[in-house]
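Q: Is it fine to ask for two folds in a single conversation?
A: Yes, each is treated on its own. Send the first.
Q: Here.
A: Result:
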Amino acid sequence: MNIDINALKDIAVKAGDEILKIYHDKALSGEVDYKSDNSPLTLADQASNEVIVNALKSLYPDIPVLSEEEKHTEYEIRKQWNRFWLVDPLDGTKEFIKRNGEFTVNIALIEDRYPVLGIIYTPVLKKLYIGNVLEGAAIMITDDKKEHSLKVNSRQTDRIAVGSRSHKSDEEAELLEQYGVIETISVGSSLKFCMVAEGKADIYYRHGPTMEWDTAAGQAIAEAAGAKVLSMTTNERFVYNKENLLNSSFLVLGF
């Protein structure tokens, strides 16, 4: 794949360190602006974005970067991209503001409209998740530097779902009942994908809107661990670099 995974790990951790500096400074962490869609933007989003985008452009000048916090390239240009980085510098800004620790740094590599590599780092827990879809390999690296291979549970009965802390829907409850779910865990940000990859949950359904940068890294990790990530509109594998970067509802199945 000619991508330096260790360099990507370092980038994600450095971005996480910048987030934590602001997170632990109560005067700075409370400074919140709002974008045109009313989603919150903090100094931490901006600091993380600067670390990631500058590093990726320096290491891989020939691979374009599409980040939530950058001016988005027009579709007429990016539709020509066969390969690009898709970045969410701080996924779970609402969780950051609530100070519950459930936010992540997300970096994904997209090839031919699908994620092939995903890095998710959770700065508070100091866990790093890496998924290489082409090799079918997913790992979690804990704070003590130990690597743990990730594989879905493939549970057939008494399934556990993972859902959003900030976004719930009646549609979600109805669908989970169809899959024999007996328990639902609530977690913020892209950690829901990681929980399916770890086998701690079997299913994740999202009815409400997300953007492509919210899901790409998580999809790569979940798929590398054996999960399926399906569009509820097409019932096919979730696809990226659409003209409209807004996602449809989707379903992550670890069985």
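Q: Second one now.
A: Result:
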Amino acid sequence: MKDTNTLNFLLAGVGGQGTILASDVLVNVGLAAGYQAKQTEVHGMSQRGGSVTSFVRWGKVVHSPLVGAGEVDVLLAFEKVEALRSLSQLHPGALALINTQAIMPVSVTSGDQPYPDDDQLRGAMAQVTDRAAYVDGEAIAAGLGNVKAANVVLLGALSTLIEREGLLDAELSPEDWLAVIVQRVPPKFVALNRQAFHAGREAVATIAR
């Protein structure tokens, strides 16, 4: 049974996308909001472009970082197939933010397996939740001059969705998120990451509830 006193996040991506940094930011944002927060990570073959997942939990009391199947409240997927891999972890109606980047595994590039198209992705997501938002984080970050800031674009988008969906009983401003982010990036990239965060917020600002 889902614990209604906690907010459970799943971050799912591919090695090199900044998933673990995003997870670290998210757990510390939870602490800044006054919650107990814990995280657990499964790196997989992160150095070789393999799947990388991380669970984060916020709550008044969080005894364990573990999240069971069907108990994820918020999915942040950095890649489309990783979103599909995560579906069994979501509870019906979970909030999902999906980066539209496609990273083809060897099984696809070699012609052994097909890569799902956008209609398949959206159709599969719709079977689980009607609260899915899609953002092209790489395109937004590239427009700012550095595609590696895509993970911060997605954190910005996530911050807006969490506010809008009323998932917190504590108030978090954009500057609260940024205070955590700027502590975790090199000083020369602080301005870029501020831009990326706000660009992500703008990217989902007009998405209907």
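Q: Anything structural to flag on that second result?
A: Two points. The helical segments are 19-32, 80-85, 106-109, 118-126, 137-143, 150-165, 174-182, 190-205. DSSP finds eight helices and six strands in the chain.
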